[in-house]
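Shipment paperwork, digital attachment
Item: protein structure file
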Amino acid sequence: MRIVDGEAIVSALERLLREINTDPPSLRGVTFCDPALTGVERELACILDENLRIAREEQRPLCQDCGMVHIYIRKGKFATYSGANTIQPLIDEAVRRAYRDGGLRLSTVADPFARKNTGDNTPALVHIEEIDGADLEFTVMVKGGGSENVSRVAMLSPSAGRAGVADLVLSVLRDAGGAGCPPYVVAVGVGGSFDTVAHLAKEALLFDSDDDPELRELITARLPELGYGILGFPGVKPVSAVRVRKAPTHISMLPVAVLLNCHSFRRGTVSL
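Attachment content:
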């Protein structure tokens, strides 16, 4: 059995959270200012590139919405950790240090009705997958409320097929417009059940899944129908990528989740 020091986990996650809020690995080498863009859309794209540069060089948050923290853990069956009985307190301590001490905006409320801020951006949203071996890997994403608010889960008839799923994706994107800060990364979960399909979509986003190239191409081919581009202004680039993850489902169901992420795609991974 391999024991990972709990403080090492906290420190590594704190560093990663600060990094993905200012210079996320998922956006390194990315440029929005495509020469093919024209007019206002090109001007806005160049502003997004400038925002990336300023955030990186001045270590400022890339977006004022520093989001909720999503963490997907791949834990080897021969790996464990010290410092806590479960992993959640270690993760929350890392979030607390990164956000409260790092000057990042606190975006989490303790109760959906009372709306009182937790004061440290905890708790993180954690999912654990057990794998073989003794590795301990954390994939971390910071996701703001704007793009989450325009996402959707639906239960379609199996007869809808890929065309019906593509119709749903286009409907979500039409309704979203510029509200979630495009160009979007679109993650589509298909299968499972009502409560698991949203998680499939989140995994598609976290791991760049491409489980169904036929569906991805069908969606991509229809994007010009939207008529908007960067930040919702008239243009040609409403989406930067489409990801799909599938799972087995019941014979009478076709669950679909369409999860949008804004252009500030903040994700990173650390292995211990």
